[in-house]
Amino acid sequence: MNLDWHFLLGGSGRISAASMADPLKNTHLKPEELLVREALQNSIDETITNGTGLTFKIQARRLSGQAKAKFVEGLQLRQLQQNASLFESNNNWFRKGHECLENLDDLNKPIRILEISDHNANGLGGKWNLGQSIQDRFFNLVLSITKTKKQEESSASQLGSYGFGKMVFALSSNLRTMVYYSHFPQAERSGDANRRLLATSFLPNFFDEAKELEYTGQAYFGIDSDQDNNPKKPLVNGAADSFFEKLGFSKRTQGDFGTTVIVPD
């Protein structure tokens, strides 16, 4: 199992990761207001109608010492660090991200974490690599970039995180990085999976002179999929639970349906 980061190459009409946040630049909301509004709206849209109601949580943590070391090693953040010297520095928007990457090995300097989770929600089921339906929630939230089936098929606000609004998670991280972990009801459309985990990053674009290759700055952390469009696929079921615990968080119990997004730094 090859679990690591894959950086998308440029070309073929692919836009830079930095430009993907453009639709959010004109909002009047503060970053923290935008984060809560978008994440909460999305969770409300995905509430399971069973009389129980939605639980929505945001927890702030600081990881230092061995807790930080475990998180950095597990998420292989040094792979991001290795490419950081090549990142384009226009507008200096990744300055705080550089500071975080430079301090990865200093276990006395904590890395701040936001853990955003909903409970009694649908979670990220459906086809992981296709967004053909509103049921393909994993693809619509984690892998799609622009318009999604949620916008086409639902009367809910388009500001929910299944559209461009998902970028609020990236904009809330100095590393522009998110970890998605979800538990969802078993369904034929989801195959054998009922838990999934995958991480994504929206970093500055860069050019590797040694390889003579241009990269968009968009990266995925997961298992090799052997697919050109979606080069990394999520960890599933017990592997997803074990990896989430390896990062230092509590796995979901059976039937605790919903999604947790980890936003580092």
Topology:
Layout: E1 3-9, H1 31-45, E2 55-63, H2 65-74, H3 78-83, H4 95-102, E3 111-119, H5 137-143, H6 149-153, H7 167-171, E4 177-183, E5 195-202, E6 206-208, E7 213-224, E8 232-233, E9 235-236, H8 237-246, E10 258-264
Antiparallel strand pairs: 1-7, 2-3, 3-10, 4-5, 4-10, 5-7, 5-9, 6-7, 7-8
Provide a compact summary of the structure.
This protein has 265 residues and is α+β, with helices and mostly antiparallel strands. It has helices at 31-45, 65-74, 78-83, 95-102, 137-143, 149-153, 167-171, 237-246; strands at 3-9, 55-63, 111-119, 177-183, 195-202, 206-208, 213-224, 232-233, 235-236, 258-264.
Number of helices: 8
- In total, how many beta strands? 10
Span between N and C termini? 28 Å
Strand content: 15-25%
Task: Give the biggest beta sheet.
Answer: 10 strands, antiparallel
Cα Rg: 18 Å
> What is the overall pLDDT average?
88
What does this structure look like?
The chain is α+β, with helices and mostly antiparallel strands. The protein has 8 helices and 10 strands. Strands 1, 2, 3, 4, 5, 6, 7, 8, 9 and 10 form a 10-stranded antiparallel beta sheet that branches. The two termini are 28 Å apart. The model is unreliable at 155-161 (pLDDT under 50).
Overview features:
265 residues, alpha+beta, 8 helices
